[in-house]
Each structure stands twice: as structure tokens, then as C-alpha cells.
Amino acid sequence: QVQLIESGGGVVQAGGSLRLSCTLSGRSFSNYAMAWYRQALGQEREFVAGVGFTGRATTLADPVKGRFTISRDNRKNTVYLQMNSLKPEDTAVYYCYGRLQYDYWGQGTQVTVSS
User: Fold this and answer.
1) Each residue of 51-93: pLDDT tens digit?
2) For a tag on the chain, would you pick the N or C end, based on fewer CB atoms within 10 A?
């Protein structure tokens, strides 16, 4: 059974940084396309960042370009989201997403940025 376990959320002041981690339990992590999504209160879930199988190809949503970085370590079955220069509008529940034939979601981790 595949599970995605996120960690690293919390409360931070505007301008601060956080790093989210997501570890996949299961085999063949390197075959999964991985991404991060977020959902603010009252809003739809939106794409934040994606990373290819080897980690060399990454995609970032426009609102986070230049501030967030996505990476993965296939030896540790883990994908990361480094978030710098955080803004209050980044406040949301952040979800890890993985796809290998099927879609898998983590339980979400809250990120709150205070002004």
C-alpha cells in the first residue's frame, strides 16, 4: 500500500523560510512523478511545483517562481519543497502528490505565514 507522509509545516513570519518533506512508503519511488499542491481556506486546490523522475526537470507555478524550489532524493524516497521569502498569501494546506498509474495524495500539512 502506497502512503505519502508529509512533514515540515508550521507558522512562520513573512519573509521567512520552511522546508516541506514528503516520504513515500513503497517501492519504485524513482518511477513516480511527484508534485506539491496547496489549498487555501475557501479556495480550490492548486498546483505549486512538480519534479520529474530523476529530479532534473522541475516546474513551478508562477506565484512561487523565484521563491520555491522542488527537489527529490530517490535514495530516501523523499520529495522536498523549499519555500523562501514566504508571503501571507502562501498560507494554505500543502499536499504531496505522486503518480504511478494511479494518483496518490498525502494527508496535508498546514503552512501559516503571518504578516
Assistant:
1) 999 999 999 999 999 999 999 999 999 999 999 999 999 999 9
2) N
| 3-state helix vs strand vs coil in the chain, percent to 5 | 10, 55, 35
The helix or strand, by DSSP H or E, that contains position 47, with its residue range, turns out to be: strand 46-51
pLDDT of residue 26: 80
Residue type, 34: M
Q: What are 19's strand-pairing partners?
A: 82
Q: Please state whether 72 falls in left (phi above 0), alpha (psi between -120 and 50) or beta.
A: beta
Phi and psi for 98 in degrees, rounded to 5?
-135, 145
Cβ(104)–Cβ(91) below 8 Å: no
Cα(106)–Cα(35) distance, integer angstroms: 11
